[in-house]
Amino acid sequence: MAIYAIWNNKGGVGKSYLTFQIASEYAKKHLDQRVLVIDLCPQATASSMLLGGLVKGEEQLVAIASKTRRRTIAGYVDERIRSPYVSSKVGGKFALKVNDYNDQIPKNLYLVVGDEGLEVQSSRVSNASNPGPADAWRIVHSWISDLITDIRHSWNVRHSTVFIDCNPSFSIYTELAMSASDRLIIPFTADGSSKRAVRAVLALLYGDTRVQGAEQSEFYLNSQAFRMSSPQIYSYVGNRLTQMNSAASAFKTVVDEIAREIWSVWQSNPNQFAVHPAGHPAPRNRAEFRKMFQAEINDANTASVVSGALGIPISSLPAGRKILAGKRIIVNQTQRDRQKRNIRRFAQTID
Ligand SMILES: Nc1ncnc2c1ncn2[C@@H]1O[C@H](COP(=O)(O)OP(=O)(O)O)[C@@H](O)[C@H]1O
Ligand SMILES: [Mg+2]
Fold first, then answer.
1. What span, in angstroms and rounded, lies between the C-alpha atoms of 61 and 52?
2. Cα dihedral sign for 24, 30, 31, 35?
């Protein structure tokens, strides 16, 4: 029944791609559950992939968002801007069954569609806490939790797992995602700024500012003041690992540095982590810590491009020739197989 946010304070690290792959794989392996993706990024990349990719997905995205009563995340936020402090309990109607739009996606996967309208709404959402009742901040930061509660209530199923794809910047809707989720997956890539971005995540969410006297985020201070929880770190995922020797060693350096950073957080604040799987004892040393919290995903090259562009999850993507926007592309079987394995393994670690 967990709610996972996929977030890093940096763009292009694979948040949307991994949301698409992991949610699809998880749904396929848990047909007894309903799986929900909430797309809280105005770019709506994960929605586009789920709805069929570059051509079909984009068309459907536009069609859904341009209806007068849009069944998208912005449609839900509209409802809440009208009634900020009292939930109108209408969230259930915003979850779309993805298989009705893209038959490559398991029938138990649902989506609250992303919408660029979120960007326009963001200042109104921020202003909704001010002026307002004394605990307006807490109530506004419960909007996405309310949405999930409404959807789960309308489903009336025993098990459901939620994945929230986030915007890189710590905007108001990223804050709402953080307040709604209980577990955090942090993807990163092998560039210098990834380490800084991971540090920013730790500072913004948990107040772990490394610089003495540095100002803490309003989110952290208010979460404390209103006793609202933040998600616990579930895993940090080195993404787009390359097989090339020189690049592979550069990647390893970055992974090791980030691992060291997160290990030091564990040593001082183990309660910021979600020990898993359920019932497993807490790691006792660095090797066990890494085994529990660190994951790595290879760069899948054309296999990932084709998978996202056609809206076919990697586990169902055939290798070989594909036509993409009129061009012939070859999906390399070795790369496809490796990526399939990576995604399957990672999805297996999701509780
Ligand atoms: N494991 C991977 N292998 C190959 N390409 C990837 C992989 N993960 C992500 N990508 C590609 O990297 C780009 C950025 O990924 P995206 O998910 O949009 O990042 P974010 O959501 O963090 O901004 C996309 O073109 C995506 O297809
Ligand atoms: Mg994205």
1. 9
2. negative
What are the pLDDT digits (tens) for 172-228? Answer: 999 999 999 999 999 999 887 888 899 999 999 999 887 788 899 999 999 999 999
Contact 178, 219 (CB under 8 A): yes
Among the listed ranges 5-19, 240-254, 266-280, 297-311, which one has the minimum average pLDDT value?
240-254
Residue 14 Cα to ligand 1 middle (Å): 4
Backbone φ and ψ of 65, nearest 5°: -75, -20
Structure letter (DSSP) for residue 95? -
By most ligand atoms within 8 Å of CB, the mutation choice from 6, 169, 201, 304 for ligand 1 is 304
How does strand 232-241 pair with strand 183-188? parallel
Domain count, the chain: 1
> Which H or E run contains 98?
none
Report d(CA 312, CA 347) in Å as an integer. Answer: 17
DSSP state of 311: T
CATH number (domain holding residue 65): 3.40.50.300
Question: By residue range, what is the domain housing residue 331?
Answer: 3-348
The DSSP 8-state label assigned to residue 314 in this structure reads: G
**Residues near ion ligand 2 (Cβ under 5 Å):** 15-16, 45
Structure tokens at 288: 């066990």
Please state, rounded to an integer, the average pLDDT across all residues of the chain: 94
Alpha helices (H) in 2-135, listed in sequence order: 15-29, 45-50, 53-65, 73-82, 117-127
